[in-house]
Specification:
Elements: E1 5-8, H1 20-28, E2 31-34, E3 38-42, H2 45-50, E4 60-63, H3 66-78, E5 88-91, H4 94-99, E6 111-113, H5 118-126, E7 133-138, H6 143-151, E8 156-166, E9 179-182, H7 185-194, E10 204-208, H8 210-218, E11 225-227, H9 235-245
Parallel strand pairs: 1-2, 1-9, 4-5, 4-7, 5-6, 7-8, 9-10, 10-11
Antiparallel strand pairs: 3-8
Length: about 250
């Protein structure tokens, strides 16, 4: 199948010319559209209190996204709680860790990060096993992270700081796209909430992450392009390999 139009279910990068997406556009002469399939809504301080989770009880935070960071500090502000300088932060990637600089004075002794995988982050967490960890998340969370924490006997609590909701994307004409790329299970849910009668047909689908891929397959989608893979840690790299092999 000749791929000409690709839809990515996420916001358009501010400077696309500086991203790997631009390489795809130039190298393979494809058009890339971007559309947010999901939206994030923070829970109120009142809702948060009902969970009986108290920020002062925790000495470390496990952060797997920018949303988790934003809503951790938003909630602390709403609760009028000053997060102490002794707080330790464990992030799933370097980019997530650097994002913390918006809120704290970045010191490597307090901020730890893996490279790409949860297993890498877990190695760092195990070196600080005496800490009590809080995991800011949405109501749709990563089961694989919980499994790792449970298996390794980590003292932690998940807390819902924000909700993941489906965006209204009914204006899209999905039939114009040769490839559609999904990044979260919530994105899969949004697709079928907006288009309940959607049939994949010959459309190529890409999925990022084991949870997303499982959600796609459970929904009856054929996942043609997957990431991360050993030789292709990013979605754009996997797409590039697919396009090369299907010229």
């Amino acid at each position: 199948m000749n791929i000409k139009n690709i839809l990515f279910s996420q916001p358009k990068p501010a400077e696309i010319e500086k991203t790997p997406y631009f390489n795809l556009i130039k190298k393979f002469n494809v058009d890339c559209d971007f559309e947010k399939f999901i939206k994030i809504e923070g829970v109120s301080a009142r809702e948060f209190r009902l969970n009986k989770v108290y920020l002062q009880d925790y000495s470390a935070a496990i952060l797997t996204s920018r949303n988790a960071i934003d809503h951790l500090f938003r909630m602390a502000k709403e609760l009028r709680y000053d997060i102490p300088s002794t707080m330790k932060y464990f992030c799933n990637s370097e980019s997530t860790a650097f994002y913390l600089q918006r809120y704290i004075q970045y010191r490597k002794r307090k901020v730890f990060h893996g490279k790409q995988t949860l297993e890498e982050m877990m190695e760092l967490i195990l070196k600080h096993k005496e800490e009590k960890f809080i995991v800011p998340c949405s109501e749709v969370h990563q089961a694989d992270l919980s499994n790792l924490l449970d298996t390794n006997g980590i003292n932690y609590a998940r807390a819902v700081f924000y909700k993941t909701l489906s965006s209204d994307i009914k204006h899209l004409d999905l039939s114009k796209y040769d490839m559609i790329v999904l990044f979260t299970p919530a994105g899969v849910k949004s697709l079928f909430e907006n288009f309940p009668d959607y049939v994949q047909g010959e459309t190529i689908f890409g999925g990022f992450g084991a949870n997303t891929i499982k959600a796609m397959e459970d929904a009856g989608l054929r996942v043609d392009v997957q990431a991360p893979m050993p030789k292709c840690p990013s979605m754009t790299m996997s797409i590039e390999e697919y396009l090369k092999s299907h010229k």
